[in-house]
Amino acid sequence: MTAPYNFSAGPAMLPRAVLERAQEELRSWRGSGISVMEISHRDPAFVQMAQKAEQDLRALMAIPENYQVLFMHGGGRGQFTAVPQNIAAANDTVDYLDTGVWSEFAIREAGKFVAKVNVVGGAIDTAKGRAIAPTETWALSPNAAYFHYCPNETVDGVALHQIPQHPSAPLVADMSSSILSEPLAVEKFGVLYAGAQKNIGPSGFAIAIVRDDLLGRAQANTSTIMDYTVQAKERSMYNTPNTWAWYLSGLVFEWLQEQGGVAAMGQKNQRKADLLYNYIDSSDYYRNPVHPDYRSKMNVPFLLADATRDDAFLAAAEQQGLLGLKGHRFVGGMRASIYNAMPLEGVVALVDFMREFEQKHT
Ligand SMILES: *Cc1c(COP(=O)(O)O)cnc(C)c1O
After folding, report:
1. Most buried residue among 24, 216, 226, 338 by CB atoms closer than 10 A?
2. What would the DSSP string read from start to end of 49-77?
3. Per-residue buried b or exposed e for 245-278, using 16+ beta carbons within 10 Å of the residue's own CB
């Protein structure tokens, strides 16, 4: 595979093989003469495809039987509202870890639906960079309805690599930018969710994986399309699902199986991240602001020693086919997102480019 390589944080790169297959099937899905976007979601062929996508995801993630897999509307942020409405009562306290930008949006949203959002702790600045406060300092509530955290902060490039524990509350995780990137012990969670556009498929779509005992608790005024219990009962077809996104996500799951599943992806992702961080650490021209123990394997922010060269860096990168490297508007600098679909060669090309740019400008 050759450039362009798309380092966009999301919507992000999709595997080329998946795009090619979607292109081949676009105008005539399974010989029907019409597109998968043009058929009923109740059509037996569509239902069969949709259920296979769920089965493939279950197999990839080793999702236990006592979890529902829901294909939802509204992306990652839709789940920021779905979680408190579905598994907490209006007078409940909920615990949130605040590790960065996305945690903060989730906290603000939860505050609309529950009596108290207790922020237990979060990101801290240390001599070695941005980190997360040690677990023993977290102020967990004894009566929290759930404990929410974001294992991979897409904007900040900060990750929590261990699964945290709460003495009493079910664990809820926003895995929008880390789902399927490595093996995961799903059984440790009450709810896992992800907007699709980082590691799965098109935007506007989300996957929620919900343990059965957390169903049946939705607040009375929960929007029906966001109600986990209704969507579980209706197999995510209470209303018309995003059929195109579901189809494309299914192709990505098949592609992941062909790649050897999440264990193989995890090894490949580790190699990609090591290559990029090792180069950044070896250079005086680039800097990553995150403590080595808390660095994301998916989103690598970096700063140039001379920020007045940022625009020149981005323009030169784009000329080489290295796209989407501009950092988030909240933090500036650069960010390379290296999700599952990014091949190792893309990261090699990026590091080669960064080295050349450094040599020219120092
Ligand atoms: C992108 C992202 C979101 C928001 O997703 P939308 O689909 O735009 O609502 C939430 N959480 C994390 C961790 C993300 O990376």
Report:
1. 338
2. HHHHHHHHHHHHHT--TTEEEEEEESHHH
3. bbbbbbbbbbbbeeeebbeebbebbeebbebbbe
Is 97 in contact with 142 (CB distance < 8 Å)?
no
Parallel, antiparallel or unpaired: strands 5-6 and 322-323: parallel
How does strand 191-195 pair with strand 205-211? antiparallel
The string of pLDDT tens digits covering residues 94-132 is 999 999 999 999 999 999 999 999 999 999 999 999 999
Q: How far is the CA of 150 from the centre of ligand 1 (A)?
A: 10
Which atom of ligand 1 is least distant from the CA of 196? 7
Strand partners, 67: 211
Domains defined for the chain, CATH in brackets: 17-258 (3.40.640.10), 261-360 (3.90.1150.10)
Binding positions for pyridoxal 5'-phosphate:
76-77, 102, 154, 174, 197, 239-240
